[in-house]
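re: ur question from the group chat, yeah i did fold both. here u go
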Amino acid sequence: MSKLKLYNYFRSSASYRVRIALHWKGLEFEYLPVHLVKNGGEQRSDEYRKLNPMAHVPTLVHGDYALPESMAILLYLERLYPQKPLFPKDEKAYGRAIQLCEIVNSGIQPYQNLKVTNDFEKAMSWSKDETHAWVQKWVVPGLQNLETVLEKSAGLHAVGDDVTAADAFIIPQLFSARRFKIDTTQFPVLTRIEKNALQLEAFKKAHPEAQTDYEK
């Protein structure tokens, strides 16, 4: 099998999800940083757009096959490398894991997207505090909804006691929420499963601060 390559940015929550999956499954991969701010945003280069026309991260490259989008990547890895599965075999648990991923993917993360916040800052002349306030307005209710679902589904992790894709989505989301000054301690189930996950080696290796391109 060809070596896996991951084009990603240390701070990107979507990139963080894929790093968790790769480390969880014990897969070797080449880490290729794409800085979303420097040089006008390296994701906008012609070379990178050939891999990902959407010009965002992450993108997984496997031989001559390039695959963007974190959920697509996780499902692809699951089919190729079924060891240490991230998607439960039980139909109901599988559905719940997907639901939790989608709450993050469509109901929370878009409001903190760098393209969105930068556009508002330029168009509205917002300060960072005003940007944070706008993100909080939308992200906090999303986290509240996530907490409500987790109250019934969570065990040690988001869906029962086994690590699933839901944990790979939730833990990066909490990291990102704190960047926007959101107090995550108001969500006891979320912070409990985060604490459990961050004790695992795969989650430690995937953490933004553990990446070669990390910067404060």
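okk and heres the other one u asked abt
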Amino acid sequence: MIRPCDISDFETMYSIINDAAEAYNGVIPEDRWHVPYMSKDGLNHEIDQGVVFWGFEEDGQLISVMGIQDVKDVTLIRHAYVRTAKRNQGIGGKLLSELCRKTTRPTLVGTWADAVWAIRFYEKHGFQVVTPKEKERLLKTYWSISGRQIDMSVVLADQRWFDLSERH
């Protein structure tokens, strides 16, 4: 079952994010990796900034979370994580599809350039990597991240974004 997360889910969300983020350990630049990957303050900050988390629940247990955030004229997919033990079962795809149905705006997602599994996941679900020049512009326009993270990231966009960008 896909449902919105609320404050009672905070500890479970925190646990899921940091469990799943272990996949980045040794993959992303060492200076970007820390334990926990996302602190409780960091999670609170994301929620305060308008990231609305949704979760996938199985047998009464939250096992995956993904955020959606409207920023200016686009929707961002943020913080998509599936518990390690539940990966590769289609859960992330179901959650992503549901969140994409919830918006009519062009949708963007950013991830680490070396997280090839994440890039493949989004491509499998219809997103395409934008050019390096466009990536930099988008990350500076819609995200609040460091220059170092901009250098080490990619942005993927859905077809709505490409359709609109062709008209401008």
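fwiw on the second one: The chain has one domain: 2-167. The longest strand covers residues 61-71. idk if thats what u expected
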